[in-house]
Amino acid sequence: MNYVTIKDVAHEAGVSVPTVSQVLNDTGRISAATRQRVLEAVRRLDYIPNSAAISMRSSSTKTVGILVPDISNSYFSYLISLITRELLVEGYVCMIGSSSESLEGQDRFLRSLLTQRIDGAILIPQGTASRGLKKFVASGLPLVILDRQVRDLPDAGRIPVIDADPRPGIKAAIESVKARGHSRIGFIHGPTAKSPNLLEREQMFVDIAGSRLGNRNALVSEHVSALSAIREPLSRKVDTFMFGYSPDALEAIRYFRLQGLKIGVDVSIISFDDIPVFELTAPSISVISQQQGMMGDYGVRMLSSLMQGRALGEQTEDAFGRIRIPTLFIDRESVGETCTVA
Where do the HTH lacI-type domain residues begin and end (predicted)? Predict the structure, then answer.
């Protein structure tokens, strides 16, 4: 691990180590100019003041950091509950933070983690390699990325990434709705620029639905507001909707009910993310499951291996870089026979 030390800061600022210590601890009589030089050196080197940094390299605290994009999202809260349960069995405690789906929030939490004595981390990051994420990777701490791909991540080949392959679930879902007489399907999702995973789901949908139903019958609607994305396909006689993100599906369910449309009769719904409410609502919602249990289990096992310095069994180097969990279509009540939307 290439840690920046207090000696590095002193050398960069052209002062002594005690002077740097006094500036960082706000003690002693230090001139404003010297203080400014030290603080600028700290920023340039991205030095993290941490009295426990040396011991962090050599001792275990049985603590794991966990970054989640949105703790209020049922999909992520359920996944994190599975992970923390398994880590507890392994004897670890967890420090959990939410990025609130922002790079700024993500980097703030990651920087905080680097000031703590943690043994490793499981991250569900944003889709872009932010400065904070790059810094975290460079620290050399054991790290596993779950659920999401990250563009332009340095040393990506050595970091385990465990996410879901959307193809099997989308393929099974399309074949199921086609067998029931549906011929026009809309795929609704948020901005793909922020999410490589959403972009991949869209591409898989276009490929599979286009080949089985014809390109004119496979509509894609990207949105800032889910409701605005729903209205246009409805006007074009789309009666089956696939949602790439579960909160959008929940919003659509409310909208359809307000419009007097019966789910599974007038309009059919399939959503990514097998969250508990989809199974409990009436009618229950058909889903493309990312198999969170399997994803979380792989993540904990791989992180545990990294933290204990063990080789990951017989995994090849490529498999070490990325493991894909096959998605699974779970057919429930929200997909009926050919619907009757006007």
Answer: 4-58
Q: What is the pTM of this model?
A: 0.77
67 and 136 Cβ atoms separated by less than 8 Å: no
Q: What is the pLDDT of residues 33-69, one digit of tens each?
A: 999 999 999 888 888 765 445 444 456 788 999 999 9
Residues contacting residue 340 through CB under 8 Å, at least 6 positions apart:
239, 265, 266
**Spatial distance between the Cα atoms of 264 and 251, rounded to a whole number of angstroms:** 16
Range of the domain at 33: 6-49
Judge if 299 and 155 occupy the same domain: yes
Under DSSP, the state recorded for 327 is P
Please check whether residues 132 and 192 belong to one and the same domain: no
Task: Evaluate whether 246 touches 133 at the Cβ level (below 8 Å).
Answer: no
248-284: pLDDT as tens digits: 899 899 999 998 999 999 999 999 999 999 999 999 9
Helix (H), strand (E) at residue 203: helix 196-213
Residues 129 and 171 in one domain: no
- In DSSP notation, 65-117 reads EEEES-TTSHHHHHHHHHHHHHHHHTT-EEEEEE-TT-HHHHHHHHHHHHTS-
- Alpha-carbon Rg of the chain, whole angstroms? 24
DSSP state of 216: G
